[in-house]
Specification:
alpha+beta; 3 helices; single chain; 7 strands; 37% strand
Amino acid sequence: MTDYIIEKLRLEEYDKSNNVWDMKSCPFTQQFKEQIACGNRESYLMKHNDKYIASCDLVTDYEEYTEKDVKIYLSRLIVKKEYRNKGIGQGLLKYMINLCKEKGYKQITVGIDTDNSNALHIYKKFGFEIYETAIDEYGEYYKMILTLYKLQ
């Protein structure tokens, strides 16, 4: 993955995310922008051959999924359809896990739709464990956690 570049987006660059996912059809786009503006969300894009191919965000304040300086939420790990099944998602997830370690977090949480078997497989491969099954207005999902360092 040496010829892949991962860049952190500033708020004024956030529209670059539209290269990976449809920002206009997502009901949360404005909320994400507000979270970036207040420092609660960091957005990252992966680029290959000058094309944006994947994205992932880190959220520092999100209900029970986060705890200041201890637990962070990994959000919207998305790989463009034509780049899937090539290790891109795994490479980006590995980068995000290492970034969370560098930032000193002890745990990473994520929510995964129960019918997203590909994502579930990748997260389990990296050591994430299901700690709860929940249902919201979008359907059933798993709450998963990865412990990076033992809690004291």
